[in-house]
Specification:
heterodimer; A: 314 residues; 13 helices; B: 395 residues; Rossmann fold; 7-stranded mixed beta sheet; 14 strands; 44% helix; globular
């Protein structure tokens, strides 16, 4: 039981990293990206190929994966520079499929649909499965914490403010003398890079990747995480990811207690749980469980903290 | 509902989810089933589950295995490697099953395999990709689906048996195209015919005229078309236009009804199609038909029956519900000099009397080589005639 809980925490952590990346694009800059598995695939494949073929250390491989994914994100942003909202969503969806099909066909590089197996994991050979999962959980939590701090910094930095302005009205941003396009490109690269890093983490955790891994299902789970947690909120991204894994996995233990259903119906009910969660959250908390904050976590907004005293003064 | 209420409600739900595992008694033997119940494999997964449940019911009625009854823990692999890994981790981590049966897509099997061998759990699968049994799985993988080498061997034997002397190999670019060619060549040579040439082409072209010309230049009397449906249509038409009148063989999955509808019957007449078959006519297969009340039980149902039967017999043979012991016991009950048995219930009875058994299954005789691949399997050969498929034979 413990090893299962630990391994699910690892997966939740990786989902959370992806949700953080998506939050930079979607939550902060308002860029709807349905192609985040494409970025994850770029990161995972880069790291897997580099560590396997060129035997470079795993951390460097994952970093390289993140950089390649960031570059891919930048290219995608340039290609889609005239697109917004639904149009952008459709094109990014197509982009992810393109990456998947390239990975299926460029057999010399990616080993095609057979996938790449035996990807190295940190100290994997020397540890029992239990210890390995524990070590990996530590790594994922550290990475998650680091990225969370970075994303919080971005969120409250001048860059974050401009990104939110781009999201709310990029015309106004342009009028204010900022190049909205370059900020969209930054958001896409940063977000895509973070997601690529998560892809690398996943590849080294399970030791196997194949094109079939990077299908829209994963995109939707991550998107759902952010939606449930709270779009535009980094804490929401992490909480949402944990909650989605809790529902996905928790439903396994509920379904066997429903009488008179076949396993196939049980599997369908599990999917139903997930959609019901989405509906409930969207009905009662449209901003997600933890909505986007309007105040800086440390520095109070001028006027709010002193509101009480100022009222007295008048 | 505010956030605090929502979170505490979620926590209560989450907590209650953990209860069932604690309440359940541990006297039954739990075996893991991981099939696609949603996603691309959803048409095959539920039937495989039913086939396994039917065997379990039969065995439980007859008294179970080593005095304990059997329970299948079924999880959905969603035909997705990521979801499948989570499901497998639940099966080995929570239910502590010694064996997982039923992975269908090759990517899913490859993803789940490391979880299995690291936790010393057997994995029984129907996935076809050759790379699967080449993984460092320490013997934990058993595959009842013929791999490419076995398919190539059987196809080549058939081609030689119909008297073809000069065979040409035409294949779409796939990971297994080249290895298949080598295997076919060596089998043909051993049987007194020869492979006069071969080419690997790119899929989805609108004409294969140049490929066909170079094939016909080698003057073959038989052409092996290892193609997918869209290409097969074009290839058959180009062959017909070039006036080729020799034999042609292709995989059944390529010659679909859609292909048949798209081409005139004179173009396809005489085309041989081949697919792996369950051991139709065997005693084990007729038991499957009876057990499932389905006279047309297919290869997946047959293989599912064989996995659960092998697992149960291996548990009885080793006397333990441990993955490593099951791995070591499978070959003791699937092959060798023991009494031939055709169902788990029958084999268990003999094993309980201390006799040796050799399980011959519904999908074939279930003899495994050291890599976990089956060594022999039946194939169904059919011929196209007037746009329809007619069975020639199953060998």
């Amino acid at each position: 039981m413990e090893i299962y809980i630990i391994s699910m925490c690892v997966v939740a952590g990786i989902y959370a990293v992806m949700a953080l990346g998506l939050n930079v694009m979607w939550g902060m800059a308002g860029l709807v990206n349905l192609g985040l598995v494409g970025s994850a695939a770029a990161g995972a494949y880069t790291s897997a190929i580099l560590t396997k073929t060129f035997a470079i250390p795993i951390p460097l491989g994952i970093m390289a994966g993140a950089i390649v994914a960031a570059a891919v994100g930048a290219v995608l942003s340039l290609v889609t520079r005239r697109l917004k909202e639904h149009y952008l969503a459709i094109v990014t969806l197509g982009f992810a499929e393109t990456i998947r099909i390239v990975a299926s066909n460029e057999i010399w590089l990616t080993n095609g649909t057979d996938g790449i197996s035996g990807i190295a994991g940190p100290f994997r050979a020397d540890l029992t499965p239990f210890q390995y999962n524990l070590v990996y959980l530590g790594i994922v939590l550290l990475v998650l914490l680091g990225l969370y701090v970075c994303c919080q910094r971005i969120s409250y930095s001048p860059l974050g403010r401009v990104l939110r302005a781009v999201r709310d009205d990029d015309m106004v941003v342009s009028v204010a003398g900022k190049n909205a396009q370059s900020f969209k490109l930054k958001a896409f690269s940063i977000g895509s890079g973070i997601i690529g890093l998560a892809g690398g983490l996943y590849a080294h955790y399970t030791s196997f990747i194949s094109p079939d891994l990077f299908v829209p299902l994963l995109t939707l789970y991550v998107k759902l995480s952010l939606l449930v947690g709270g779009v535009g909120n980094n804490r929401g991204a992490v909480v949402g990811a944990a909650l989605i894994i809790l529902i996905l996995e928790g439903s396994r233990f509920v379904v066997p207690f429903i009488p008179y259903i076949s396993p196939a119906q049980g599997a369908a009910i599990r999917e139903l749980f997930l959609s019901a969660t989405l509906l409930i959250v969207l009905r009662f908390r449209v901003t997600g469980l933890i909505p986007e904050p309007h105040d800086h976590p440390v520095i109070p907004r001028p006027g709010t903290a002193t509101a009480g005293t100022s009222i007295k003064a008048f | 509902m505010n956030r605090r209420e929502f979170l505490s409600a979620s926590a209560i739900v989450a907590g209650s989810l953990c209860a069932p595992g604690i309440l359940r008694a541990e006297t039954v033997i739990k075996l893991g089933v991981l099939t696609p119940l949603t996603g691309a494999g959803a048409s095959d997964g539920p039937r495989m589950v039913k086939a396994m449940q039917a065997v379990v019911e039969e065995v439980n009625k007859a008294g179970g295995v080593i005095g304990r009854s059997i329970e299948l823990v079924v999880e959905d692999d969603q035909t997705n490697p990521e979801a499948a890994v989570r499901a497998a981790q639940k099966l080995v981590g929570v239910d502590r099953v010694p064996v997982i049966m039923g992975t269908w897509a090759s990517a899913v099997t490859s993803a789940v395999a490391p979880v299995c061998w690291e936790s010393k759990t057997c994995l029984m699968t129907v996935s076809g990709a050759d790379s699967i049994t080449q993984l460092p799985h320490q013997g934990y993988i058993f595959r009842t689906q013929p791999n490419t080498a076995l398919q190539a061997t059987k196809h080549a034997e058939y081609i030689a048996s119909v008297g073809a002397k000069k065979v040409f190999y035409v294949a779409v670019q796939t990971p297994f195209a080249a290895t298949m060619r080598e295997q076919i060549a060596s089998v043909l040579t051993a049987k007194g015919s020869s492979l006069v040439g071969g080419l690997i082409y790119e899929s989805n072209k609108t004409s294969y005229r140049s490929e066909i010309d170079s094939a016909i230049a080698a003057k073959p009397d038989f052409i092996y078309l290892n193609s997918y449906s869209p290409d097969l249509t074009v290839l058959l038409k180009d062959l017909y236009r070039a006036g080729y009148s020799g034999g042609r063989i292709t995989q059944s999955y390529a010659y679909t009804s859609k292909v048949a509808e798209g081409i005139q019957a004179d173009v396809t007449d005489g085309l041989i199609t081949v697919q792996p078959s369950s051991d139709v006519g065997s005693e084990a297969y007729s038991l499957v038909q009876k057990r499932l009340s389905n006279p047309a039980a297919d290869s997946y149902e047959a293989q599912a029956t064989d996995w659960i039967s092998l697992a149960l017999l291996a548990v009885q043979k080793s006397g333990k519900v441990v993955g490593t012991d099951i791995r070591d016991a499978v070959r003791l009950i699937s092959q060798g000099g023991g009494t031939k048995v055709y169902s788990a219930a029958e084999g268990l009875k003999l094993l309980q009397q201390g006799k040796d058994v050799n399980y011959d299954g519904a999908s074939g005789n279930c003899d495994f080589n050291e890599k976990g691949d089956i060594m022999d399997c039946r194939f169904r050969y059919s011929a196209a005639k007037g746009g329809k498929i007619e069975l020639i034979k199953i060998v």
